[in-house]
Amino acid sequence: MRIAIVNDVALAVEAMRRIVLSTGDHLLAWTARDGAEALDLCTRDRPDLILMDLFMPKLDGVEATRRIMARTPCAIVVVTADVHRHASKVFEAMRVGALDAVNTPVLARSGARTGATPLLAKIETMRRLVGTARANAPSALSPHPRGQPARHCPPLIGIGASAGGPTALATVLGSLPANLPAAVVIVQHVDAEFAPSLAKWLGGRTPLRVRLAREGDHPEPGTALLAGQNRHLVLTSPTRLAYAEQPAECAYRPSVDLFFQSANRFWRGDVIGVVLSGMGRDGAVGLRVLRANGHHTIAQDRPSSTAYGMPRAAAELHAAAEILALDRIGRRLGNLVTQKVKAHG
Q1: How is residue 104 annotated by DSSP?
Q2: Domains of the chain, each with CATH number or no CATH
Q3: What CA–CA distance (Å, rounded) separates 273 from 319?
Q4: 3 state DSSP class of 43
Q5: What are phi and psi of 107, to 5 degrees?
Q6: Which tens digits make up the pLDDT trace of 272-310?
Q7: Active-site positions?
């Protein structure tokens, strides 16, 4: 991958430069001292990945991320000192399109680089995400034909999102009523350490109850369960959610595709699959499986997406029965749920 570094501290830049080049698998595209310079460079030479600091002169990392995602979207990982202490600022960057975050590595006088392993792990995850251009995603769950919906099983709304997803999720969930007669499960690409903050933030923007999904949970009406581990959240029976380690080769953990396929296999009621803003192709194959088995599917449209990777992949596979602007999706979900509940008594 071609990787860019945005940081105003020379030692931090040097530490990241050495780490990026250490494996021989990546190239350094350019470096920038602040967000404004990064925005200009990215317009002229868009890299595959940007390692973005948060605190810089002229234009900080949050605003730089927002502008880059609006003009020349690419994968962005926040690399900043003490991620946990600056969690609120990190989360702001994630809301506008950053995919992940990691502590800034430190270059010691001896030349040793503390923090190299976590940064290289994030880079590898991004490499797999950016390179996920195949139409067929790896899956541990084979698609199963849809049976007749169980009479008393509520509809299940499954939502997948990545870059730009938190804001999109807040818009969709904010349009749903507290007494929604459907269960909601969300798979958002976010590191487990930030998932609790995301659940709390979303909970303040919707009448629904929002919490992290736990091993053995059963989706239920009026509650939105958010994948909260760096493992795949899947249904393993009609009544049980679980976290799975396999398949390990999936570009992102948790995988939207795997959740959609598990919902198609096990959920005894209607399923409505939704793919929101995000980079890569995760969710497209799973959405196609849902549609092929008679479930309703929706993808966010291009103009309203922060990153039009996942929704575009769904559209290209004809996996989405409807392609809607973000501000229409919540209302449409409410109408669909009402129709399905009435239809099954």
Answers
A1: P
A2: 2-130 (3.40.50.2300), 156-343 (3.40.50.180)
A3: 10
A4: helix
A5: -100, 115
A6: 999 999 988 999 999 999 999 999 999 999 999 988 999
A7: 162, 189, 282
Burial class for 106, CB neighbours closer than 10 Å (0-12, 13-18, 19+): middle
* Residue 173 neighbours by CB under 8 Å, 6+ apart: 184, 202, 205, 206, 208, 210, 224, 330
CB 161 within 8 A of CB 306: no
Strand ranges, E, within the chain:
2-6, 27-32, 49-52, 75-80, 100-103, 106-107, 113-114, 156-161, 183-188, 209-212, 223-226, 232-237, 240-244, 271-275, 296-300, 322-324
The answer to whether 197 and 166 are in contact (CB under 8 A) is no
Whole-angstrom CA distances from 16 to 5, 43, 218 are: 8, 22, 43
**At residue 328, what are phi and psi to the nearest 5 degrees?**
-105, -15
Q: Distance between CA atoms of 194 and 210, rounded to whole angstroms?
A: 15
The predicted model gives 254-277 an average pLDDT of 96
Q: How far is CA 146 from the centre of its chain?
A: 27
C-alpha span between 187 and 253 (Å, rounded): 9
Q: How confident is the model over 165-177, as pLDDT tens digits?
A: 999 999 999 999 9
DSSP per-residue letters across 137-168: ---SS------PPPTTPPPEEEEEE-TTHHHH
Structure tokens, 65: 């991320």
